[in-house]
Amino acid sequence: MGNSGAGASETTSGGETQDPGTGDAEAADALQRYLGELSLWLERHKDYPRAARQRRQEGTAILRFVIDREGRVLDYSIEQSAGHSLLDREVEAMIERARPLPEPPDEIQRTRLEFRVPLAFRLR
Q: Where in 12-122 does DSSP place strands (E)?
């Protein structure tokens, strides 16, 4: 999956979203490394549904999720459908299987992190 197109932001206690780039360079580097780690973690938990393969269904969903400092998923939703319900259901099943997610590194001093990650389903 890679982290191309993946993004993160901080959600404040008031529900406002802030860009993670407002911190120092060390925190920004840690966030980029963590995005890569998250992408690999999610990819390891993703399955391509057999019925979707048989029907030659492909697509990319955008998954939005919020985690806490311990990697617990607090909320998630599909912001953009993959175009097929079988694939969208797999995205939801994947985030459930992947719980808990890896903990953010100490350099990221946020209590909640929000991510938007593309999840591609491509036949080879």
A: 17-18, 59-68, 73-80, 112-121
61-97 per-position pLDDT tens digit: 999 999 999 999 999 999 999 999 999 999 999 999 9
Handedness of CA 99, 105, 110, 111 (dihedral sign): positive
CA distance 7 to 30: 13
- How far is 68 from 18, CA to CA, in rounded Å? 16
Stated pTM of the model: 0.81
pLDDT in tens, 14-53: 333 444 444 588 889 999 999 999 999 999 999 999 999 9
Closest CA to 66 of 4, 5, 10, 1: 10
